[in-house]
Amino acid sequence: MEKPNWVEIKKIYDSVQAELLRGLLEAQGMQVLLSQEGAARAIGINVGAMGDTQLLVRSEDEAAARELLSRYESGDLENSLPD
Q: Which of 7, 5, 17 is nearest to 51 (CA)?
């Protein structure tokens, strides 16, 4: 079995936002990894270069994930929710 290739689709500087985006992508059936510098995570740094979190998806999900994030950031997903 071949290991999946992971691609970074976004850098995030807010751990709450990172978890929200992970949930959004996982709700669409995508596998998601959040990666942060080990020392930063241990110390609790969430600002600056050491505070960034990489949002990664499998390479085969990259296009769909980027499209979904684009729709989310533009507010387009709000228009597609049921009343």
A: 17
Count of domains observed in the chain: 1
In terms of pTM, does the model score above 0.85?
no
Please report whether residue 54 resides in a domain: yes
Segment 14-25, tens digit of pLDDT: 888 999 999 999
Sign of the Cα torsion 3, 32, 25, 49 reads negative
| pLDDT tens track for 52-63 | 889 999 999 999
**What residues does 34 pair with on adjacent strands?**
55
Task: Please report whether residue 81 resides in a domain.
Answer: no
CATH of the domain at 16: 3.30.70
Q: Which domain holds residue 24?
A: 6-75
